[in-house]
Amino acid sequence: MTNATAAPTPATTTELHVTGMTCGHCVGSVTNELSAIEGVTGVDVALVKGGVSTVTVQSAAPLAADAVAAAIDEAGYALLDA
């Protein structure tokens, strides 16, 4: 009897820089929009009120830049370096 274990799927980490966020509601909006992208497994936001916040996205595979930009725009904020 063999005990085969599936190899874990390597995760991809994407770091984004977002402006215009000022509060927890902003964090929630960005998190919800990015989480809706297929393959996203986690979102962490380091909020800098009124400055440039760092958003770290974990995903099963690299994300399409246009999907990320659209999600940030839909949340009502601006993505730098897009």
Please give a structural write-up.
This protein is α+β, with helices and mostly antiparallel strands. It has a domain at 12-49 and 67-80: 2-Layer Sandwich (Alpha-Beta Plaits). The chain has helices at residues 24-35, 65-75; strands spanning 12-19, 40-46, 52-59, 78-80. It has a four-stranded antiparallel β-sheet with strand order 2-3-1-4. Helix 1 (24-35) runs antiparallel to helix 2 (65-75). It is globular, with a radius of gyration of 15 Å. It starts with 11 loop residues before the first strand and ends with a strand.
Report a brief summary of the structure.
The chain is an alpha+beta fold. It has two helices and four strands, in the order βαββαβ.
What's the topology here?
Blueprint: E1 12-19, H1 24-35, E2 40-46, E3 52-59, H2 65-75, E4 78-80
Antiparallel strand pairs: 1-3, 1-4, 2-3
Helix pairs in contact: 1-2
